[in-house]
Specification:
6 helices; DinB family protein; DinB/YfiT-like; mainly alpha; 179 residues; globular; MST-like
Length: 179
């Protein structure tokens, strides 16, 4: 039984094995982002802080992209799916961030939630096909392929870093704070 805190975040297992611990922390950070963005309209999801162009809506869309990129494109060497497959990344390398302003909160949450669900299915397939040591099918330019363990740890880092941004943004929108 997973404990869930007052914000709907599942607590990582305190005595889990390596896979359960990694997945537990990743799900905790995913739920933290959802909590920070929940209940906001388009204006609030497009608010910025100081000189930064980062928005909560941009975070949702960027992390949807990162989920798909690592758990589909890198892990299984699949082509990019919609909407990422039609982007001219050479023209706008930050399209995921910039284009979020054109999306409704419902579209942003749906895009992100669907990416997370695909990622969970892809992680389960990778675990069944070699576990945490399974290398990605796509290699880095130097020929090395990171392991599923590396990808999961990187995704925890990605969410943790951006959840710090989400803390500042949400507080600036309506004063809401919390870890």
């Amino acid at each position: 039984m997973t404990d869930v805190d007052e914000h709907g975040r599942p607590e990582p297992p305190p005595n889990g094995d390596e896979l359960a611990t990694l997945l537990g922390f990743l799900d905790f950070h995913r739920a933290t982002l959802a909590w920070k963005c929940r209940g906001l309209g388009s204006t609030d999801l497009n608010a910025t802080v100081g000189a930064s162009a980062i928005t909560l809506g941009g975070l949702l869309k960027h992390l949807a992209y990162v989920e798909d990129d690592w758990f589909s494109r890198w892990l299984f060497d699949r082509e990019r799916s919609a909407p990422w497959d039609t982007v001219d990344w050479a023209v706008d390398n930050d399209w995921d961030w910039h284009s979020a302003a054109d999306d409704t909160p419902e579209q942003l949450f749906a895009l992100w939630e669907q990416a997370v669900e695909r990622s969970r299915a892809n992680v389960a397939a990778a675990v069944a096909d070699g576990g945490l040591d399974r290398p990605t099918d796509r290699a880095w330019p130097d020929g090395r392929s990171p392991s599923l363990r590396w990808v999961l740890t990187h995704m925890i880092e990605e969410y943790a870093r951006h959840n710090g941004h989400a803390d500042l943004l949400r507080e600036s929108v309506d004063g809401s704070t919390g870890e």
